[in-house]
């Protein structure tokens, strides 16, 4: 099948999922066309079945805001016609479902019918999409999608509660390629980061408010007052400066390493003992799954879809949002004993296998087949 994928090309979870899905589909023989404003961070174009089409938005001084949706929908029309694309899969509703719908309508004028699958990822519903300024357009474009998928049961529920949705929402969870991690555990360069006695605690995110970065620091502050530990903070975002200042104020700057954005998170997770994810809201928590597949237990909040990934008492522990003492207590319980840590590590990787890419990608293929059949009956 020839599939056009629209996503954000950045480090955010939705872009990562879209990119990994595209790569997996290409490996399974589909022709995949990424349409976005920059080459996605995890996309290497060394595959005969993968194409990248860059959306350019020419600057024009009249525009206070440059019209990205317009440029994207025009690029989609051109790409779909030129490459005879069978279906369009947009990740993150805003503004991709809206632009995709416009492209669909323009193509229909020319007698071309292309089904659109919209995958909801999280903040497109829970934070940005529900804002009154966007809500009517988001509701409309979700309802106009031929198939709507959500990355967790929790996000599906939130979407149905928040928007007036007419059709079905199918849950297809995020996934991980467990094969990539099979031989990774021998070359961890742990000694570069910490001494043998120190535990390594890690947090990876886009450092937005929703991630509750101060909670990460405060939980770690309590952990390191009980046992020797280092904290590795990976990512960039608006909360980073405040986090650095908080570390200084708490007198733990020498135990916290800020690494910025990284393409090598697997190397970092490889030597990590614990992952912290105290988010205010999280539709799935892909970062937690990436930690688990690297044998890293997770201390998290119980927000949104996180309990669908982090199994309480098995792969880590869940706490109420903001329950810093509880998170620290649970973290210490895992870290203070070698045998307990090893059990949680083994559990984490075992549970991560439930989200293996080989199990999840066929679910998307089934959706595509169904949408493709509806295309034939609409033609
Ligand atoms: O805020 C982020 O983590 C980025 C955001 C995105 O859309 O890029 O992530 C969302 O989608 C991920 C992939 O489906 C989910 O794993 C994240 O839980 C979700 N983030 C939130 O809901 C806050």
In short:
The chain has 379 residues and is α/β, with parallel strands linked by helices.
Can you lay out the helices and strands and say which pair or pack?
Layout: E1 2-6, H1 13-27, E2 31-36, E3 50-54, H2 68-82, E4 87-91, H3 93-109, E5 116-120, H4 123-126, H5 135-143, E6 147-150, H6 153-162, E7 170-171, E8 199-204, H7 213-226, E9 229-234, H8 240-250, E10 256-260, H9 265-270, E11 274-277, H10 286-293, E12 298-301, E13 316-319, H11 324-335, H12 338-352, H13 357-378
Parallel strand pairs: 1-2, 1-4, 2-3, 4-5, 5-6, 6-7, 8-9, 8-11, 9-10, 11-12, 12-13
Helix pairs in contact: 2-3, 3-5, 7-8, 7-11, 10-12
Bound molecules: ligand GMT.
Ligand GMT binds near residues 92, 151, 210 and 282.
Give a written overview of the molecule.
There is one protein chain. With 379 residues, the protein is α/β, with parallel strands linked by helices. The protein has 2 domains: 2-175 and 357-378, Glycogen Phosphorylase B (Rossmann fold, 3-Layer(aba) Sandwich), CATH 3.40.50.2000; 179-355, Rossmann fold (3-Layer(aba) Sandwich), CATH 3.40.50.2000. The chain is 42% helix and 16% strand. The chain is built from 13 helices and 13 strands. The chain has helices spanning 13-27, 68-82, 93-109, 123-126, 135-143, 153-162, 213-226, 240-250, 265-270, 286-293, 324-335, 338-352, 357-378; strands at 2-6, 31-36, 50-54, 87-91, 116-120, 147-150, 170-171, 199-204, 229-234, 256-260, 274-277, 298-301, 316-319. A 7-stranded parallel beta sheet has the order 3-2-1-4-5-6-7, sandwiched between helices. The chain has a 6-stranded parallel beta sheet with strand order 10-9-8-11-12-13, with helices on both faces. Helix 6 links the parallel strand 6 and strand 7 (170-171). The longest helix has 22 residues, at 357-378. It starts with a strand and ends with a helix. The model has no long low-confidence stretch (mean pLDDT 94). Ligand GMT binds at residues 12-15, 17, 92, 121-123, 126, 151, 174, 206, 208, 210, 281-286. Residues 12-15, 17, 92, 121-123, 126, 151, 174, 206, 208, 210, 281-286 line the site of ligand GMT.
């Amino acid at each position: 099948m020839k599939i056009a994928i629209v996503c954000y090309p950045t480090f955010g979870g939705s872009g990562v999922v879209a990119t990994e899905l595209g790569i997996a589909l290409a490996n399974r023989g589909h022709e995949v066309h990424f349409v976005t404003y920059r080459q996605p961070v995890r996309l290497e174009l060394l595959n005969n079945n993968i194409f990248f089409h860059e959306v350019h938005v020419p600057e024009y001084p009249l525009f206070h805001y440059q019209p990205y949706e317009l440029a994207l929908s025009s690029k989609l029309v051109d790409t779909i016609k030129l490459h005879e694309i069978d279906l369009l899969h947009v990740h993150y509703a805003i503004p991709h479902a809206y632009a995709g719908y416009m492209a669909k309508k323009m193509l229909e004028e020319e007698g071309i019918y292309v089904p659109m699958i919209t995958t909801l990822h999280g903040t497109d519903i829970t934070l940005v999409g529900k804002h009154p300024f966007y809500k009517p357009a988001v509701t409309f474009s979700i309802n106009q999608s031929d198939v709507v998928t959500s990355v967790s049961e929790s996000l599906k529920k939130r979407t149905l509660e928040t928007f007036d949705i007419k059709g079905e929402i199918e849950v297809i969870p995020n996934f991980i390629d467990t094969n990539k991690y099979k031989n990774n555990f021998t070359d961890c360069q742990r000694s570069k980061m910490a001494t043998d006695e120190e535990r390594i605690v890690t947090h990876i995110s886009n450092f937005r408010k929703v991630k509750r970065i101060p909670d990460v620091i405060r939980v770690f502050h309590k952990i390191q007052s009980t046992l020797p530990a280092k904290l590795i903070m990976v990512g960039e975002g608006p909360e980073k400066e405040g986090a650095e200042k908080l570390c200084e104020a708490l007198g733990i700057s020498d135990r916290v390493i800020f690494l910025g954005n990284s393409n090598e998170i697997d190397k970092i997770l490889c030597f990590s003992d614990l992952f912290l994810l105290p988010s205010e809201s999280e539709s799935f928590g892909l970062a937690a799954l990436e930690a688990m597949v690297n044998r890293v237990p997770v201390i998290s909040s119980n927000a949104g879809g996180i309990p669908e990934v982090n199994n309480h008492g098995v792969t880590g522990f869940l706490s109420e949002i903001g329950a810093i003492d509880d998170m620290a207590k649970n973290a210490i319980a895992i870290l203070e004993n070698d045998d307990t840590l090893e059990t949680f590590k083994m559990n984490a990787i075992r549970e991560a296998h439930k989200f293996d890419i080989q199990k999840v990608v066929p679910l998307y293929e089934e959706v595509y087949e169904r949408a493709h059949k509806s295309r034939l009956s609409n033609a």
